[in-house]
Amino acid sequence: MSNVAIGIDIGGTGIKAGLVNLVTGELVGERERIETPKGGHPKDIVQVTSELIDKLGADNDTPVGVAFPSSIHHGVTLLAANVSDKWIGFDAEQYFEEKLKRDITFVNDADAAGFAEVRYGAAQDQKGLVIMTTLGTGIGSALIFEGVLIPNAELGHLEIDGHDAEKRASAVVREKEGMSYEHWAKRLQRYYEHVEMLFTPELFIVGGGVSKSHEKFLPLLNLRTPIVPAKLFNQAGILGAAALTQHGER
Ligand code: BGC
What we know:
Elements: E1 4-10, E2 14-21, E3 26-27, E4 32-35, H1 42-56, E5 64-68, E6 72-73, E7 76-77, E8 90-91, H2 92-100, E9 104-108, H3 109-120, E10 129-135, E11 139-145, E12 148-150, E13 159-160, E14 163-164, H4 165-169, H5 171-176, H6 181-199, E15 203-207, E16 227-229, H7 236-243
Parallel strand pairs: 1-5, 5-9, 10-15, 15-16
Antiparallel strand pairs: 1-2, 2-3, 2-4, 6-7, 7-8, 10-11, 11-12, 13-14
Helix pairs in contact: 3-7
Bound molecules: beta-D-glucopyranose.
Beta-D-glucopyranose is lined by residues 69-71, 79, 81-82, 108-110, 134, 136, 138, 140, 154, 156, 166.
């Protein structure tokens, strides 16, 4: 089994890539980034992915993990909450394999980030259930029990007080509505206490760009479960996508 893999993290604004040492969880060389093409169509995204892989200069047989903001079942992207509708019911893994002539593993973006945090970051050696949440355009989530990922938890779409949770409590909604951190923390409180009630986890990890400002809102939350910021920040998607290439068919 290869000890290096390529991780690609497809987001709404940028597509990031790196070659990852899977033993240490560190990047080998530089991280590369290209803006996400407007419209986010598969053909444009695969083109950018190809350019990024060329920049990394890895061998042709290096496995590639792709983190994407959708639930993914056997390589098919099922949802498109914040991306082009073209991805709904699309065999993304097969399409990328054909275009890139490489072995590809497609995974949910939050699953990738959570898996990376458990393996290399904020939840190493954590027992029991870890729930990763990413606060960005939407709310991503990952359930990891004793180091094993239970893929495709879409807890950003829980209906809370009659609303899709991410439409009330994501980081982008906070910005758009000009909410103070105090106001936002009230919505986050409602969100996390609901998830806590449903799953009784051992640990929550909070990722997404806003987790850099965690001291402005995490101390305002009152939960039974410890809640900590992610450690790997904007590398988590890349590291986790690369690491999940070793985890076979989902
Ligand atoms: C999507 C998830 C994704 C999350 C974060 C949600 O809207 O449904 O699949 O993980 O956004 O990007």
